[in-house]
Design brief:
The complex is a heterodimer. Chain A has eleven helices and ten strands. By secondary structure, chain A is of the alpha+beta class. Chain A folds into three domains: about 110 residues, Acyl-CoA dehydrogenase/oxidase, N-terminal domain (Butyryl-Coa Dehydrogenase, subunit A, domain 1), CATH 1.10.540; about 110 residues, Butyryl-CoA Dehydrogenase, subunit A, domain 2; about 140 residues, Butyryl-CoA Dehydrogenase, subunit A, domain 3, CATH 1.20.140. Chain B is about 45% helix and about 15% strand. Chain B is built from twelve helices and ten strands. The two termini of chain B are about 30 Å apart. Classes of the chains: A alpha+beta, B alpha+beta. The complex binds flavin-adenine dinucleotide. Flavin-adenine dinucleotide (FAD) sits at the interface of chains B and A.
């Protein structure tokens, strides 16, 4: 067992951190947010140059063959920088589905373009009624010659407004909450019958509502097995949750550092407020919550590509529970210990608080995953 | 010991409820239920309706418009108002500066300001906090130098709630820089239209515009706007802060919000069932209800005690009200966030800073949920942070 990064991983970490430190000051971030797409195309190109956009892909597709640890390194840095670009939507989610479930032809056609920064993807899966249940899909895919015709609507599609192509889940058979019968389809954003409405999210990122009416997809647009895509979706989402956990750790670490620094510099009653023992203990509580979350983000990373799906799901749920609880404590206390200044848009800590809070609601909140973990029997076996 | 309300008190509650229900404009009630921000107009409209009825300032001395209600009646009135839910009369006027003027102001000040406060003809802001003086309020630096018939005020206030609407602000200012810090402070009433005042908005993390910085640059304030005696302002500030002993518990508001939680949890479905039918989620709401009932009983003990208490010292239990009241309000916003699930994310504001929810296909009630959760972190910070409240209890109640 070794928690040390390898030489290459260390280099990756340093170069990502350097790039983000350079490009992601607080004012720069505000500027990117104000751009029409809500993020920076220029910074996106730099991610591509650095190899971040092809990180998890095989070398023959222009990637770096990185695993979950490399993803964790990048996502933690993104969490610290509060980066706005659609790396999660395009590389982790979209790229993940293609990498894990796409045909050789799809991989050949798409992965190199993701890696070089010329193709943006989004994953249209959540629906108005589905909440956190990955199998709950009402959108339909009807067989039409060799291809399919899609009808339905997708909600809160992360970066769905700027994606060039969307990977959309739809039901080829069965009832809305059946575990079988779900398919995945690659749809061009400009396809006939597609419409989308983009909007900002409360954490400063972007999402979209997607309508599909009579959208035709050819046989080459079917990803994986048309009637049995749920295992693929679960795999990709589990990897995505591990990535989000790392992002949350980055955001929490930054909040904790800002808070400790503030305790040392803010003076009231003639002393730095960090002299008050109650605040010291609170900063320690934050630290404990942060480190427990970091440990569980490692656990999620370790288990993200586990082949036993049940073990993998349990590990990921356990991690998401810890992340959800930690972001609540760290985020709330970061604001509290800053007093009024923590409540303002002009100061960084509140932006971390919002992003970390929203990570809890993505792909299942702490309650959802606690119930899942309990249903699957927990982590310690009785035998 | 008789823990029940008397028949008279119950009848009073019915009367209050009937009036408030009939009088509150539906558009305002709807915004309150949905947790959307109120406009200046909404607040003014409602307070004037109450004032018309003679109920804007029930706790004031009778000669200035008070109703002469007992503490229990006042409690009932506030609870009914909150549960409706109806807006509060503007606290900076009716709960803060009004009582200070009644207790320490000159006759001229009373005549000039009190009727206008009750009818919200003036919009008052509270100018206490400064960038360097939050919890340690007595360290404030904004100075007022006497020059003939005027004070010349220089300095900066911050976190000033709704100062963008205010035409008056009451300020703590330093009039004697040489004295011990609590002893050189005065309480000044300042016309916001005076030359040399600048208001700069501060946007809060939810995107709202409710606080401001207020800058004073050689602002001339007539000496007749000094409340009470020079350098006694700290006493008046303590009176002001300790004045609202029971209102801060917000029990009525929290009851209404728990009701709303249940309503929303019944609308939102998890799988094939409404969320409210999930036993784990129901238990979470029930846990809040237990805390809230305990707070309500504590509040009633304090209220009942106000009636019999001779001395002006607050009941030690009253210190609990702010801490528990704010924690409960915050935990309700947390549960709302859990109910809304993925629809916490969409964010949209119209040009007036009010929330709308056009862009997402989520439930129409979703938009204010996450911003409210973020915004409500304030309730354990302002009005004396919860850490400061605990310091006070440790010292004043426990003698530590
Ligand atoms: C939304 C909002 C509206 C407000 N409206 C108004 C208004 O209208 N008018 C007005 O005058 N003010 C207003 N305030 C200001 C508010 O009263 C102050 O924010 C509050 O007093 C805390 O001061 P501070 O922000 O400077 O934090 P600080 O005093 O710097 O406190 C930072 C942290 O240190 C803790 N701390 C400080 N001292 C101690 C101690 N001795 N022991 C333990 N912990 C300690 C605090 O609890 C807090 O967690 C408002 C604030 C907010 C957030």
């Amino acid at each position: 067992m070794d928690f040390e990064l390898s030489e290459e991983q260390r280099l990756l970490k340093e170069s990502v951190q350097r790039l983000l430190a350079d490009r992601y000051g607080f004012e720069a971030r505000q500027r990117y947010m104000a751009e029409p797409e809500g993020w920076s195309r220029q910074v996106w190109r730099q991610y591509a140059e650095l190899g971040l956009l092809g990180l998890p892909f095989e070398e023959k597709y222009g990637g770096f063959g990185g695993g979950p640890v490399e993803t964790m390194i990048v996502m933690e840095a993104f969490g610290r920088a509060l980066a706005l670009e659609p790396l999660f939507a395009t590389v982790i989610l979209g790229g993940g589905l293609i990498r894990l479930g796409g045909s050789a032809a799809q991989q050949q056609a798409l992965l190199p373009k993701i890696a070089d920064g010329s193709l943006l993807l989004a994953f249209g899966h959540v629906e108005r009624q589905s909440r956190f249940d990955l199998f709950d899909v009402a959108t339909t895919a009807k067989k039409d010659g060799a291809g399919y015709v899609l009808d339905g609507a997708k909600s809160v599609v992360l970066h769905g407004d700027t994606a060039d192509k969307l990977i959309v889940s739809a039901r080829v058979a069965g009832a809305r909450r059946d575990k079988s019968g779900v398919g995945l389809f690659l749809v061009d954003a400009k396809a006939n019958g597609m419409s989308r409405r983009g909007y900002p999210t409360v954490d400063g990122l972007r999402a979209a509502e997607i309508q599909l009416s009579n959208v035709r997809v050819g046989a080459d647009g079917v990803i994986g097995e048309a009637g049995n895509a749920l295992p693929l979706i679960e795999r990709a989402v589990d990897i995505a949750i591990a990535a989000l956990s790392a992002e949350a750790v980055g955001a929490m670490a930054a909040m904790h550092e800002l808070t400790v620094e503030y305790l040392k510099t803010r003076k009231q009653f003639g002393v730095p407020i960090g002299a008050f023992q109650v605040l010291q203990h609170r900063a320690v509580d934050m630290f404990v919550a942060l480190e427990q979350a970091r440990s569980m983000a490692y656990f999620a990373t370790m288990m993200a590509e586990e082949t036993n799906a049940i073990e993998r799901r349990k590990a990921i749920s356990a991690a998401k529970v810890q992340i959800g609880r930690s972001v609540k404590l760290v985020g709330q206390q970061a604001i509290q210990l800053h007093g009024g200044i923590g409540m303002t848009m002009e100061y960084k800590v509140g932006h971390y608080f919002k992003r970390a809070t929203m990570i809890d609601t993505l792909y299942g909140d702490a309650d959802h995953h606690l119930a899942e973990l309990a249903r699957l029997g927990g982590l310690v076996s009785r035998a | 010991m008789d823990l029940r309300f008397t028949p008279e008190e119950n009848a009073f509650r019915q009367d209050v409820r009937a009036f408030l229900k009939g009088a509150l404009p539906e558009a305002i009630r709807k915004k309150m239920v949905e947790g959307r921000s109120l406009s200046k107009d909404d607040i003014v409209t409602w307070q004037r309706i109450l004032n018309q009825k003679g109920w804007a300032v029930p706790h004031w001395a009778k000669e200035w418009g008070g109703t002469g209600w007992t503490p229990v009646q006042q409690h009932i009135y506030q609870e009914e108002r909150e549960m409706l839910p109806a807006p509060d009369p503007l606290p900076f006027g009716v709960n803060m500066v009004g009582p200070v003027i009644i207790a320490f102001g000159s006759e001229a000040q009373k005549k000039r300001f009190l009727p206008r406060i009750a009818n919200i003809d003036d919009w008052w802001a509270q100018g206490f906090s400064e960038p360097g003086s939050g919890s340690d309020l007595a360290s404030l630096k904004t100075s007022a130098k006497r020059e003939g018939d005027h004070y010349i005020v220089n300095g900066q206030k911050t976190w000033t709630t709704l100062a963008q609407y205010a035409n008056w602000i009451f300020c703590l200012v330093r009039t004697d820089p040489a004295a011990k810090k609590q002893e050189g402070i005065s309480f000044l009433l300042i016309d916001m239209k005076s030359k040399g005042i600048t208001v700069r908005p501060i946007q809060t993390i939810d995107g709202g515009r409710e606080v401001n910085e207020v800058f004073f640059d050689d602002v001339r304030v007539p000496v007749e706007n000094l409340v009470g005696q020079e350098n006694k302002g700290w006493d008046y500030a303590k009176f002001l802060l300790g004045n609202e002993r029971t209102g801060i518990a917000r029990v009525g508001i929290s009851k209404e919000r728990v009701r709303r939680l249940k309503e929303l949890a019944a609308l939102e479905r998890v799988g094939d069932k409404p969320l409210i039918e999930d036993p784990a989620f129901r238990a979470k709401i029930a846990a809040i209800e237990v805390e809230l009932k305990a707070l309500e009983m504590t509040l009633l003990r304090v209220v009942a005690d106000e009636r019999s208490r001779k001395s002006n010292r607050p009941n030690p239990a009253s210190s609990i009200l702010k801490i528990k009241g704010s924690e409960i309000q915050q935990s309700i916003t947390e549960l709302a966030l859990e109910i809304v699930g993925p629809y916490a994310l969409p964010y949209e504001r119209d040009d007036r800073g009010l929330l709308r929810n056009e862009p997402s296909d989520g439930p129409e009630w979703a938009a204010p949920i996450a911003p409210t959760y973020f915004n409500y972190r304030k309730v354990s910070i302002y009005g004396g942070s919860n850490e400061i409240q605990k310091n006070i209890i440790a010292k004043a109640v426990l003698g530590l």
